[in-house]
Amino acid sequence: MQKLLSFLLLFLGLNCSAQEPAKNILAGADRIPVYLPLLKGRSVGIFANQTSLVGNTHLVDTLRKLGVNIKVIFGPEHGFRGTADAGEKVGNYTDPQTGIPVISLYGSKRKPTAEDVKEVDLLIFDIQDIGVRFYTFISSLQEFMEAAFELGKPLMILDRPNPNGHYVDGPVLDMKYKSFVGMQPVPVVYGLTIAEYAFMIAGEKWLSEKANAKYAYYKTAQNSVDTPFHFQVIKCANYTHKSQYVLPVRPSPNLPNIQSIYLYPSTCFFEGTVLSEGRGTDRPFQVFGHPSLPADLYSFTPKPNEGAKSSKWYGQRCYGWRLDGTPEEVRTEVDNQVQLKWLLEAYRLFPQKDSFFIIPKSGNMEQSFFNKLAGNNELWQQVKAGTPEAAIRKSWEPRLGEYKTIRKKYLLYEDFE
Fold first, then answer.
1. Rounded to whole angstroms, how far apart are CA atoms 83 and 60?
2. CA 330/CA 311 separation, integer angstroms
3. Where are the domains of the chain?
4. Which end of the chain has fewer CB atoms within 10 angstroms, the N or the C?
5. Which pTM value belongs to this model?
6. What is the C-alpha separation between 190 and 131, in angstroms, rounded?
7. What is the percent of the chain where pLDDT is above 90?
């Protein structure tokens, strides 16, 4: 593996015996015989994007060929086809490939309305998650679940493996810093599939008051043979939390490969700083830097591209670091942890330390985007104070322990421990 320039990386290694190569893993969507009978004769609304595949074919196309009546498609951040920039507001439109109306849930609204689903008998959620708190698809999931329960629409979740599902780490969100990049008191890496996460937020009553009440009623109603299901999960097959699962398609424009997905929990913190996190390059979240860092570091020049039309330092040469290697090498490098060494070293070398973190217009750092990513107001202060990484980690332990106890209640698959 090509070493990071300028500072030594600490290799603690992974317990290789705890890893399992992917063996015929099937996502929930692949298990058509299990759920197709539940869709026959019903009008369906689907929350999906470019990751919603059955083999090499999109779920929407697959179900239409099987005679399923799809009335409406809902799209998340980056849009139904997955090409919009991060944070870009996407409007409603008609999908040219299918003629089905697409309603964006990452723009002027984030929940389906009664009008949106008036012709829908059943809602389906099928989006590939990557198991990181500030990756917004779990926030979209929560809002979609709330709408389904509140509006009395049956909900089916087609589960998918979590490529970062083999560990749990990072600061647990303080709800004072709740936002769309962190809606629940979970750590940065929460170690659950999208369906396990759904069971957790419902089971812990973390939904809206009305949705919590409806979920409690549905759980009771499911005991009646005369009541159709209201919330059902189609599990993955042959998946455990020890599995090494490489996504067949990029989950969003700036996560082009499994290396970037492994690094994202650690390097996404740079979004809350003045450093480029590699958007506008072919290695987003694998390179990071700034024009004012030492010129003997790795250099790169971000430029606009599809999915990253605007970002930091476009057209300017940045100096910093490049994380390279095979998927196995990068996974070993991350070592089942949210790594802070890159953030700490970048701050140490940055010449204008008072401008390292992006300060909001209010001037109040508590309202910063960095705090939304971190989920607290402590991490940036610990970085500025030069707190050792081990001490920062120790400060996470009490709430991490509490979360791990909660998590265990909702596992659908064999755990990594």
1. 17
2. 25
3. 26-242, 251-386
4. C
5. 0.91
6. 6
7. 81
How far is residue 52 from each of residues 29, 47, 126, 220, 381, measured CA to CA in Å? 8, 9, 6, 31, 40
CB distance 347 to 384 below 8 Å: yes
User: Which backbone phi and psi does 97 adopt, to 5 degrees?
Assistant: -80, -25
**What Cα–Cα distance (Å) separates residue 86 from each residue in 209, 255, 306, 360?**
30, 11, 11, 19
- Looking at residue 4, what DSSP letter applies? P
Provide CB contacts within 8 A for 379, sequence distance 6+.
171, 269, 370, 371, 392
In whole angstroms, give the CA distance from residue 172 to residue 343.
18
Whole-number Cα distances in Å, 305 to 85, 259, 269, 287, 357: 10, 20, 22, 16, 25
Type of residue numbered 414: E
List 122's β-bridge partners, or say none.
44
Fold classification of 26-242 is Rossmann fold (3.40.50)
Residue 109 belongs to what H/E stretch?
none
Task: Note whether 244 and 168 are within 8 A (CB).
Answer: no
- The Cα–Cα gap between 140 and 105 comes to 8
Residue written as token pair 């913190």: 269
Q: What's the whole-number mean pLDDT along residues 366-389?
A: 98
CB contact set of 117 (below 8 Å; sequence gap of 6+): 45, 72, 123, 147, 151, 153
Length of the chain: 417
